[in-house]
């Protein structure tokens, strides 16, 4: 008596391996940090222009309101010989890193003034401005 399984079973040819017809379970991986496909890129921003205070128009005043901390600092920096960091810190009540950031960002970059920093023989830092 023959069984159905024996009749329908076919033996693979010699040297061939049966192949599995599997579908991939997910998409291939991409590199970490790589941009996603089909997204428009961000355009580059334009280059920075001149200091803001200098470009506000005719008669733009480079300075500060009377009585402000900025006005006090500028007054001290314009003295002959400038002012020490300790004097500037005492006048404003700021911490040292805040004073350095103010001199670099506001006075030099925004106001367009040249800040001169010198270290004296006693080791005290002195700041002054030209103009």
Structure description:
This protein is an alpha+beta fold and 131 residues long. 28% of the residues lie in helices and 11% in strands. Strand 2 (114-119) and strand 3 form a beta hairpin. It is rod-shaped. The protein starts with a helix and ends with a strand.
What is the tally of helical segments?
4
Low-confidence stretches: none
Mean pLDDT: 78
End-to-end C-alpha gap: 114 Å
Radius of gyration: 37 Å
How much of the sequence is in beta strands?
A: 5-15%
Task: Give the ordered list of helices and strands.
Answer: HHEHHEE
Sheet with the most strands?
3 strands, antiparallel
Number of strands: 3
Shape: rod-shaped
Give a topology summary.
Elements: H1 4-8, H2 69-77, E1 83-84, H3 85-92, H4 96-110, E2 114-119, E3 125-130
Antiparallel strand pairs: 1-3, 2-3
Keywords:
131 residues; alpha+beta; 3-stranded antiparallel β-sheet; 4 helices; 28% helix; 11% strand
What can be said about this structure in brief?
By secondary structure, this protein is an alpha+beta fold. The protein contains four helices and three strands, in the order ααβααββ. Helix content is 28%, strand content 11%.
């Amino acid at each position: 008596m023959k069984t159905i399984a024996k009749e329908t079973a076919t033996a693979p040819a010699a040297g061939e391996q049966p192949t599995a017809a599997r579908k991939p379970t997910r998409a291939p991986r991409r590199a970490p940090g790589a941009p996603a496909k089909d997204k428009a890129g961000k355009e580059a921003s334009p280059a920075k222009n001149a200091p803001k205070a200098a470009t506000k128009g005719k008669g733009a005043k480079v300075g500060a309101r009377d009585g402000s901390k900025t006005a006090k600092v500028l007054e001290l920096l314009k003295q002959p010989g400038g002012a020490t960091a300790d004097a500037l810190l005492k006048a404003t009540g700021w911490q040292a890193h805040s004073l350095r950031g103010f001199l670099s960002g506001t006075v030099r970059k925004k106001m367009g003034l040249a800040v001169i920093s010198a270290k004296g023989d006693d080791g005290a830092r002195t700041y002054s401005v030209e103009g």
